[in-house]
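Example with several molecule types.
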Amino acid sequence: MVAPAWFETDAGRGGLAVSLRGVTKIFDGGVMALGPFDLAVRKGEFVSLVGPSGCGKSTALRLIAGLATPTTGRVDTFPHAGETQLGHGIGFVFQEPTLMPWASVRENVRLPLKLARVPKNDSDARIGEALSRVGLTEFADSYPRELSGGMKMRVSLARALVTDPDILLMDEPFAALDEITRFRLNNDLLALWRNLKKTVIFVTHSVFESVYLSQRVLVMTARPGRPGSEIRIEASEPRDEDFRTSTAYAEYCRKVSSALAPSYVGKSAL
Amino acid sequence: MNSCETGDASAPSADGRAFRVLRILLPVIVAALGTAAWELAVRLFDIQPYVLPGPVAVFRTLFSDWGVLSQSLLVTLLTTLEGFVAASLGGIALALLFNLSKVLEYSLFPYAVILQVTPVIAIAPLLLIYLPQQTAVVVCAWIVGFFPVLSNTTLGLNSVDRNLAGLFQLYGASRLQTLRFLKLPSALPYILGGLRIAGGLSLIGAVVAEIAAGTAGAGSGLAYRIAESGYRLNIPRMFAALLLLSLAGIVIYALLALISHLALRRWHESALGKES
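Resulting structure tokens for the full complex:
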């Protein structure tokens, strides 16, 4: 097998977490949603995919998660060996909280462990840890309908974290939230990422969110989605509200916006 | 300012309580007025009890014939229960099978529909030829009861949230796990809705079969009492038996509604109050 040049160089820097090579996805109706698409994400990297609606961002995530199979090309994920005891090292956060309405917060977070047949005693400790990471310890016995939108999203995040995955895939997780909640969750997510050293692939519509969170923003073209330009965000860590109001931040946002602009040319806002 | 707030807060709940009392009170008033008008008409026009008995005569018969009627009520309720249990288990089991195998669904579903659309009153005499009477009656109750359970459960099993299904796939859930932890809980509100319909229909099925068996049968259910009393022109007993049948139907419905409410109250929209 001949690996492309970037494969070698990136493997040298801590290794790859996710690699997509020549991936296309054509839906049953003949619509080409994606491709050809190449992507290499290193371990511990925070990458955002930004692009117009219908450019296949979510499809790319579903392919990485194994929820869909590519029409051509190959998708490889490299979660490390320690995590394979649970059968996988990937956590997925959907656009909606996607909680089971009939189960309490605790039971919702327990789901991945229950499906992996982890004994109840072992899973209780992990659930407690995951809930405390997202600040929901005291809501363990609440039901999803009793929580606000932001809290539901935190439960969803705790559920994704409970298996201690290496790779976290997030599909516009905060899109439906108000701005203040969104900013708070952005900060929380950054803190989690810094502490837990996960690889995060984050799909979003928001230029501002992508710049604030990522080390690398990948701007995708309109359908079929292909990687367009790539913007590296080199800001001092930790990022906080000072970064959000800095001129450097504004400059990066302008760059991403202008990279995004060609995809929208000739399209009405509707 | 303060008094204004408390006034606003207490007003809707007081309204709500009054509304709830009214909802119970109004039908009771209607029943009382209707019964009084009925009794009055019977006395005023001196209608004979074998034409139309007044409510007083009906209630008197209910008490005087309680021995016979209560026995019949028990028989009918038992038949209904057997039919209902068979319909529930059969409907849910068949829906689960259909969910596992499309081949099975496409092969058998049309026949389930045919069984449903053919009037049970027309099937009952045939069943009575081939089956012992008690079995035939239960089978009738089953035939009318199982279809709503089957179609509702099927609908419920197919209404699973797509993202949740994806999540189960991501975490490598087995078919059995998906069924137990995702599909069945998702389908629960639909199944309970189906059971609520099936409860009333099982009673109807049982009654239809008893009527079809008529006095020729050896049965002793309430419907049999109605048919028998009709031949004997014992109209008050017909009314009394009818009253018991209605009450049985109401109790069955109320019980199933209560079970449904208890099972869903923590999470399902249908069981939540308006205030949340």
